[in-house]
Amino acid sequence: MNENPDVRIGDTEREQALQALGEHMGAGRLTVDEYGDRSARVAAAKTRAELTALFIDLPEPHPKFTASWATVAQPAVTKAPATWADRPLGQRLVAAVIPLLFVGAVLVGVTTGFWYLIALPLATAAVGRSLWGSDWERGRQGRRDGRRRLGERDQS
Length: 156
Fold this sequence. Notes:
Order of helices and strands: HHHHHH
Strand content: under 5%
Shape: rod-shaped
Oligomer: single chain
Number of domains: 2
Largest sheet: none
Number of helices: 6
């Protein structure tokens, strides 16, 4: 079996395992106590490896695993690396203005004593982050595609 043994199992796999254990008990391969012990372990099993370990010493039937997310062929998503030219004009302007505001605030603070002006570039950076930060990092289109894959409605 080329399947990943660490993939989590569901109720379908547990039910198949219980049916298979019942067949083995009916064939005399398991005692009532062994069946009870293995049934309890089936109910507690979380991964394919835990479930498969219960059938190591038994012939067929064994539980059959459905295709996992990892084994289903996923389309390759290739995305070109982001560049400054890909960013919105407003974002590029704010990014260019923040260092100038900082230098200007320091100069005004040194010459006039108005040090509270240092808050101006910090506030501008915070506003820019709230406007463009999360969209730039995750990508607005990528979030929409993810919602469609999960069956959610596009809420843009």
